[in-house]
Design goal:
Length: 179
């Protein structure tokens, strides 16, 4: 069975729960293609847990999570092609993976903020270029710049929204841990 499942970074936990439910219903995740195409095979229903490890194109990625999952928790990496993450399956109880979940919360929060600020910078840069083009009357198709600015602003708002949701998750996680 092949399924297209879109998920934003701040809803990784929902994806993992969905995959665990599929496993309990007798559909094991076999591979992932292009980040959002999930391939399932019929199997014996089992109690398994999934963990998504985000891959960053620049900077430090979650390699420490990958290492811990494979070496300490006998996690199995799901085959993937052209994905921005690595998905793992393990029998390990979620309580034992709490430090990995906590680390991922903070890492995703930082990545979302970085993406939001990058796109916001591009919107400001395009705005400055548009103002310069209008001032010096060098551009005939200034409206096209406005379209790009609008797109960049929408994407920035999308990432800032995700950042604030992730920030609240981090606060709630710390609050629940301290109780």
């Amino acid at each position: 069975m092949k399924k297209f499942i879109f998920f934003p970074l701040w809803k990784i936990e929902n994806l993992e729960k969905y995959l665990e439910t599929m496993e309990q219903n007798g559909y094991r995740l076999d591979k992932i293609s292009h980040s959002y195409w999930f391939y399932f095979n019929e199997s014996t229903p089992k109690e398994m847990h999934y963990f998504l490890s985000y891959k960053s194109f620049r900077g430090q990625s979650m390699g420490w999570c990958d290492y811990a999952l494979e070496k300490n928790y006998n996690a199995h990496e799901i085959k993937s092609n052209m994905c921005f993450y690595t998905m793992y399956r393990t029998k390990e109880p979620k309580e034992n993976l709490s430090l990995l979940y906590e680390g991922r919360l903070d890492y995703i929060k930082a990545k979302l903020l970085g993406k939001a600020l990058t796109v916001l910078f591009l919107a400001i840069l395009y705005s400055a270029v548009s103002v310069a083009a209008i001032t010096f009357s060098t551009g005939k198709n200034i409206w096209l710049m406005g379209v790009f600015i609008g797109i960049f602003v929408c994407i920035a708002v999308y990432y800032f929204y995700g950042y604030f949701i992730q920030k609240n998750k981090c606060k709630n996680y710390e609050h629940n841990r301290n109780e």
